[in-house]
Amino acid sequence: MSDFKSMVDILEESKTKYPVFQHLVRDFEALPRCKGLSLNHFMLRPIQRIPQYRLFLERYLKYLPQETAEFQDASKALDIITQVNEQSNECLRRGDNFSKLLSIQNSIFGNFEIVKPGRVFLKEGELMKLSRKELQPRWFILFNDCLLCTTPVQRNLLIVHHELPLTGMKVSIPQQQEYQNEFSIISVQRSYTVAAR
After folding, report:
1. Which residues sit opposite 154 in a β-bridge?
2. Whole-angstrom Cα distance, residue 73 to residue 87?
3. Other Cβ atoms within 10 Å of 141 Cβ, number
4. How far is residue 197's CA from residue 189's CA, in Å, rounded to a whole number?
5. Helix 19-30, helix 4-17: angle, nearest 10
6. pLDDT at 62
7. Which pLDDT does position 142 carry in this prediction?
8. What is the rounded distance in angstroms from the CA atom of residue 163 to the CA atom of residue 150?
9. Is the dihedral of CA 191, 108, 151, 101 positive or negative?
10. Residue 184 per-residue DSSP state
11. What is the distance between the alpha carbons of residues 146 and 140, in angstroms, rounded to a whole number?
12. In whole angstroms, what is the distance from residue 133 CA to residue 154 CA?
């Protein structure tokens, strides 16, 4: 399940490389029993089935007397399905995180390593960096281990200015009401005062 994205990529690559295969896939998807759905949709079916089994077992248990052997068996089955569901969801989350890391990696101009073991994407967005002259737009990307300060240079391309480790980092918010959307990011390497829109 965690390999769903790579399976889809291989499928798309195979369709591009082998026109006959692409034709067969199109013929399959055109069959009435496919109801206009793509092959990618059918590849997701096993992942979608697990939560359905869990709901079925939960409903089923409501109507069984607790003292029966059947209730015990159904309870064990529900425990197993719940564990499988949690593992499936965790694999999907990791796959989504890896896809996001790759997407960010592809948007970085130059040689800057984004994909690292254990790194998790948390949030990203534009903040205005306060400088002596003017407000400068910066695109910040927050991971579980660092904060990247970048500048958009072209469409979908970013230049990394600083990678600030989260260890020892402090964020301070001014007490004055008129500076509500400003805050300071203070790290060992660099400090910024930024404003949200």
Report:
1. 157
2. 21
3. 22
4. 26
5. 120
6. 92
7. 93
8. 9
9. negative
10. E
11. 10
12. 23
* Number of other residues whose CB lies within 10 A of the CB of residue 20: 8
Measure the CA–CA gap between 176 and 112, rounded to whole angstroms.
38
Q: Which residues of the chain have pLDDT under 70?
A: 1-5, 47, 177-179
What's the pLDDT score for residue 73?
Answer: 93
> Measured in whole angstroms, how far is the alpha carbon of residue 159 from the centre of its chain?
22
State the span(s) of the chain assigned CATH 1.20.900.10.
4-107
Q: Which long-range contacts (CB under 8 A, 24 or more apart) does 170-179 make?
A: none
Does residue 158 contact residue 150 with C-beta atoms inside 8 Å?
yes
Contact call for residues 160 and 108 (beta carbons, < 8 A) = yes
Q: Using N-to-C axis directions, what is the helix angle for 4-17 and 69-107, rounded to 10°?
A: 60
The two three-digit tokens of residue 99, written as one number: 């896809």
Domain 121-195 adopts which CATH fold?
PH-domain like (2.30.29)
Both tokens assigned to 116 = 């690292």
Per-residue buried b or exposed e for 107-127, using 16+ beta carbons within 10 Å of the residue's own CB: bbeeeeebeeeeeebeeeeeb
Q: Given this model, what pLDDT does residue 1 score?
A: 45
CATH 3.90.1150.10 fits 4-107, yes or no: no
CATH 2.30.29.30 in the chain is located at: 121-195
Q: Are 105 and 115 in contact (CB under 8 A)?
A: yes
